[in-house]
Amino acid sequence: MTAPTSLTFTRPDDWHLHLRDGAALAAVLPGTARQFGRAIVMPNLRPPVTTTAQAMDYKARILAALPAGLGFEPLMTLYLTDNTPPEEIARAKAAGVVALKLYPAGATTNSDAGVTDIRKTYKTLEAMQREGVLLLVHGEVTDPAIDLFDREAVFIDQVMIPLRRDFPELKVVFEHITTKEAAQYVAEAGAHTAATLTAHHLLYNRNAIFMGGLRPHYYCLPVLKREVHRQALVAAATSGSDRFFLGTDSAPHASVMKEASVCGAGCFTALSALELYAEAFEAAGALDKLEGFASLHGPAFYGLPVNTGTVTLLRQPWTLPESIPFGDASLKPLRGGETLAWQLQA
Ligand SMILES: NC(=O)N[C@@H](CC(=O)O)C(=O)O
Ligand SMILES: [Zn+2]
Ligand SMILES: [Zn+2]
């Protein structure tokens, strides 16, 4: 079979995205809106988006920052805390909030207000299960005694398994999975558990962080893992299972914050997300599985309609910008300055 020169498929969605706020939001939103019909917008602003009222205000700021002519729908989430009142869930549902996000306190960027002990949230999780509001999890334990590379696998035993047992009907998305343990867990966990996969975790193993010197733009959380894990993630993404779907976790940080003695966690991939996923799927000989992963499985799990319209990727080399303006600062895309094989048709 000859390699295809173009690929047209149902307009996709991004089921895990950081848009930030203010000038940063204005800088990154057009890239995402070009690529995706909708995106699940993460609530880890400073301060975090913990109430329905805050989520609605944030949504209005996103829509106000959207360039004219780009149809894009932000799907809003709330940041779960130890003190999220169960009564907030009905309000959230009525306002169109689709999910709450669990950040174990201290696990990642802007997670200081996160959950200190999941049992403190049980009344709220009960309300979510009842109302059909999803739980999205950053699946890493924060115990400093646990090796950083093991924190996701340990989270499965310490948090996911008890959570699934106690809330069997709650829909849970294990976000940005990075290990063979998580891929296997989700594959076997039944109809109410799904996972998002980033392009960078499908393309790279942890060597990428250390290629000829420390590469801060490849540092994200959960951190890139060994090759055996990357292969398991690719197998899950290309398996055709409808419980694995696209979530870029595009997480912009100004270059000065990345190229610093303490580098913030996050890879910015929004400008070339579909191109990067196509590269990963093609390398696995599975371009035919990209549409399900990018456009069909996510809506099915969230109970939302599939987008109308299509996007087209062309086999047409182009060079990703080295950096783009980001408010007063600049922002470097992952692979900035490099040539990509696929290009989204304008
Ligand atoms: N993925 C990251 O490395 N960073 C994210 C937070 C997150 O998704 O964990 C961010 O907000 O910068
Ligand atoms: Zn996360
Ligand atoms: Zn994220």
TrEMBL record:
A GO term for molecular function: dihydroorotase activity
Active site: D249
Binding-site residues, Zn(2+) 1: H16, H18, K101, D249
Named cofactor requirement(s): Zn(2+)
Record's cofactor remark: Binds 2 Zn(2+) ions per subunit.
The family this protein is said to belong to: Belongs to the metallo-dependent hydrolases superfamily. DHOase family. Class II DHOase subfamily.
General function of this protein: Catalyzes the reversible cyclization of carbamoyl aspartate to dihydroorotate.
Protein name as catalogued: Dihydroorotase
Species of origin: Ideonella paludis
